[in-house]
Design goal:
The complex is a heterodimer of chains A (143) and B (140). Chain A is an all-alpha fold and 143 residues long. Helices cover 67% and strands 0% of the residues of chain A. Chain A folds into 2 domains: 1-73, no CATH class; 77-137, no CATH class. In chain B, 57% of the residues are buried. Classes of the chains: A mainly alpha (143), B mainly alpha (140).
Chain lengths: 143, 140
């Protein structure tokens, strides 16, 4: 399972570099629909969703994954306030810096302290959410 | 400003999709970066090791690419304060909403999840609205 994780992470990071999405300027150019709009990110998503979709379709024919005992995917189907509020906050942060979690982490070795500031704040935000959700006494959930 | 790069976007996107397909078919896990990061810190031991391996690969991919090909362009216009505020929002929001661009945007939509489709529409609209305000209303 570790080997699969390592290989998947490598491919993911390579995909971020090849697509150019490792660079916040490229992401912000996609989000800037009223400026010099760069639609590249839409094609990245379309290609990624298509290839991943084939993978999930194959997975429906398997009883278990090749290197693990069971599939462990999300099971919830409800659209709740946390989903919407979380996506809103995440989107605002994404639009402010042009970083989402993958590119921020992947660029650590290239962008150094700029990425590190974002990543450290992101980890603090995740910790803050864990405290918040415990305080709000919501039901526990898988990480 | 950046130019439209259709071929490298498709190729890079396909690699990201392949990474997600591999993790699902091989390990039965979702390639959602925010969930992997959170679980690498707090999950049970058996769930931590594959997550740490994935993150090592994610960071290592850039080291390998720099060594073998070139130093990729990472153009960050935001200053430290903006990066810190943005990071806090991204960390808090992705956990509250249970996913980010990879978990909801790539894997969720590929799994035909309505939750993920809604989340992706909301965070993309919020991101676009934020860029609009920053660039065209405040005018930074």
């Amino acid at each position: 399972m570790q080997a699969v994780g390592l290989l998947s992470g490598l491919l993911f990071g390579l995909g971020l570099v090849v697509s150019g999405m490792i660079s916040p300027a490229k992401v912000l150019a996609f989000l800037d629909v009223a400026g010099a709009w760069d639609p590249s990110l839409a094609l990245v998503m379309a290609a990624a969703v298509s290839v991943a979709g084939v993978g999930f379709a194959i997975g429906r024919r398997l009883r278990k994954p090749l290197a693990a005992t069971a599939f462990a995917g999300p099971t919830r189907r409800d659209i709740d306030a946390n989903l919407i509020a979380g996506a809103l906050l995440f989107g605002i942060g994404w639009g402010l810096a042009g970083f989402c979690p993958g590119p921020a982490l992947a660029s650590l070795s290239v962008a150094g302290s700029r990425s590190a500031v974002f990543v450290i704040a992101m980890l603090a935000g995740m910790g803050g959410e864990a405290l918040f959700s415990r305080f709000a006494n919501r039901r526990p959930r898988p990480a | 400003m950046t130019g439209f790069t259709p071929l490298s976007s498709l190729a890079g996107g396909a690699l990201i999709g392949l990474a997600a397909a591999l993790l699902w078919l091989g390990a039965g896990r979702i390639a959602g970066i925010s969930g992997i990061v959170a679980g690498a810190a707090t999950g049970e031991a058996s769930e931590r090791s594959w997550r740490l391996a994935f993150l090592a690969g994610l960071v290592g991919a850039l080291l390998l690419y720099q060594a073998a090909v070139a130093r990729p362009a990472v153009d960050i216009a935001a200053g430290p304060m903006t990066l810190a505020v943005a990071g806090l929002l991204v960390g808090f929001g992705t956990r509250l909403g249970m996913g980010c661009t990879s978990g909801h945007g790539v894997c969720g939509i590929a799994r035909l999840s309505r939750r993920s489709l809604v989340a992706t529409c909301v965070f993309t609209a919020a991101g676009a609205a934020t860029v609009f305000v920053v660039r065209h209303v405040v005018g930074v």
